[in-house]
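Hey team,

Filing this mostly as a record. A colleague (T.K.) asked me to run one chain through the structure pipeline before their review meeting, and I want the input and output archived in the tracker in case anyone asks later how it was produced. No errors, nothing strange. Just documentation.

Input sequence:
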Amino acid sequence: MKKHVAANVSWVGKVDWELSKFHGDEYSTHKGSTYNSYVIEEEKTVLIDTVWAPYAQEFVDNLEAEGLLAKLDAVIAQHAETDHSGALPELLRRRPDLPVYCTANGIKSLKGHYHQDWDFHPVKTGDEFMLGNGKKLVFVEAPMLHWPDSMFSYMTGDAILFSNDAFGQHLATERLFNDRVDQDVLWTECLKYYANILTPFSSLVKSKIDQVLALNLPVAMIATSHGVIWRDNPTQIVLKYLEWCQEYKEDRVTILCDSMWNGTRALADELARGISDASPGTTVMVHCLSKFDKNDALADVFRSKAILLGSPTVNKGILTAVAAIIEEMKGLRFRGKKAAAFGTYGWSGESVSVLSAALDACGFERVDDGLKALWNPDADSLKAAYDYGKAFAGKI
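Output structure:
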């Protein structure tokens, strides 16, 4: 239902309390999410983005019930991913005359998703849509934040930046604004969102923020596509992005592993103890990857200055949960972090070399050739792991 945002701007999106996975099954959303859509009612009535396809009928019915469907003069499609554009087919079935404003790449993406030749109007950075009453939308292309078609829309007068996927988080809430939600939960979800989605594009994040800041536009509000709207000190999230996009790290070490019969896990515990004893101020996290949420683990990797990656040798390779996190880390391209491998083995012992090569491929700075232990670690092997942890702390 329609909720007041500012002046003649309203939220008309959907709160999805039950969402537990996103991007297929790739991203965990423990706190649900929102699909934020906005309507501007000046002399022109404009819709900015829609909602995910399962809620398309409800979304368009709500627009009609609020008297908005017939009033719309245009729709702005800032990003073609279906959690934003999913209601477009139903909306345009019922209002086929509506022009759709998006980037040139947005036209390609929307046609690719829906195979419809709607009334597309391509826009580029600096193009404007006149709203009336002395206000306008100014479009800013934001390619690869996080798709080639992404863009922002800035509303003059009210100084609202409609930022699409930038500055958002997966957080279901009816409270709508950043100053009305639990701050610990909010910032946890913001960091997790950046770590798992935007990390590969960090250099582009900085250049785009610098470009927008150079325009010297006032920003009274940042209206995102997921989670809260930033109205209290809205640029605080922009400053966080500037911090996160520049090889971010804390005094933290994350140990990622999996184990068949707890031998590799026993090494992980001793490694953690050694690091902590050698560097008491360092936060150490141990995640068994077959049991712990991978996206939460990746958020810890993002926060860390170094990681240790462990697996026993299985069929001359590694366990599948470890292989999966490697694939994720290759894509995320973490930078400025040190690493090493460890693991147990019974006869051939390839896992540590496999892991070491993977760490190199992921872009970590590997400090040495890692740690191996034969069979189930005995007291000497556990002592070696503890000592290795102490030495590792000194190398990072």
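Quick notes for T.K.: The first strand starts at residue 3 and ends at 6. The chain has a mean pLDDT of 96.
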